[in-house]
Amino acid sequence: MLTRAVEKPVFVDGEKVKGFKAICRESDGYVYAIVSTNYALIQHQDLLSIVNKVMTEIFENPKIEYEEYNNGARLFIKVLLPSKIVQIRDNDAIIPAFYIQNSYDKSTGIKIIGGFYRVLCKNLAAFHKEFELRTSKRHIGKDLPERVKWSIEEMATSIFRSIELLKASAEKKLSLVRAAQIIDAVKIPEKCKNYIIEKLLEIKKPTLWDVFNYGTEYITHKSNASIDRKISMLQELSRIILLANSEPNTQTNSRNQT
Are 201 and 138 within one domain? Predict the structure, then answer.
């Protein structure tokens, strides 16, 4: 059973504070956050149940995995769609994916992010908001199941469209200089950038697909970041797909020193 949270009144010097309430862990009263009384608490289990129901209604045999972190404050759900597998090139396929998040500590509302899973090396990938993919729902309002279903349906259309863009540009040849320009323009850790460049030096004619996948490989398997931080880095990394199709002189150097 996933961690449950409860709402409790807030007191200061024995006086109840109007307009605010505390979100606490049910098991021991640990306080996750102080929120307004308009805030609608969404239980992790309730969201997971909705996602399970909606995904099985819309898609054939979705694969759903989940994990809690930050002392139960955050929930991460990964949904893969094996029935929608896409062949990018010979012996290299990807599976469309949804990443869904929830929190009790105000770190995020219900967030739905589109991406994919590379079968060959088990890399995760997430599309940047410039692909018009990310949907975030604040914890205010009603009809949550309907809103989640609508968001997933809209997201699915965008995911499939973005995968077609990726597929079309995957074999785009890049010089090492051009690849370095693109890598330098995205805000990912220096260690990730260096890893990509080192890997590109091992092959003669790198493609956009190579650049992108060396980045997803590093973030998925070699970074020690939390899962939500990894998803953010993967989203930023995906901008190279857009940058690779832009003119070199339109790129801005924004080297990240983190």
Answer: no
Mean pLDDT for the chain?
A: 89
Q: How would you class 36 by CB atoms within 10 Å of its CB: exposed for 0-12, middle for 13-18, buried for 19 or more? A: exposed
CATH of the domain at 145: 3.90.1150
How many other C-beta atoms can be found within 10 angstroms of the C-beta atom of residue 8?
12
Distance CA 251, CA 79 (A): 34
Q: How far is residue 56's CA from residue 180's CA, in Å, rounded to a whole number?
A: 42
Q: Are residues 10 and 124 in the same domain?
A: no
Least confident of 17-26, 191-200, 248-257: 248-257
DSSP 212-256: HHHHHHIIIII----HHHHHHHHHHHTHHHHHTTS-GGG------
User: Where in the sequence is the domain holding 9, given as residue range(s)?
Assistant: 5-36
Query: Can you give the pLDDT at residue 81?
Result: 97
The per-residue pLDDT for range 140-190, each reduced to its tens digit, is 555 788 888 888 998 998 899 889 888 887 889 999 999 999 999 999 999
First to last CA, the chain: 37
**Residue 54 shares a structural domain with residue 140:** yes
Q: Please tell me whether residues 108 and 225 are part of one structural domain.
A: no
- Give the residue from 127, 94, 108 showing the smallest Cα distance to 233: 127
Pair 63, 13 in one domain: no
> Do 148 and 116 form a contact (C-beta atoms < 8 A)?
no
Q: Name which of 218, 206, 217 is nearest 244 in CA terms.
A: 206
Q: Is residue 185 part of a domain?
A: yes
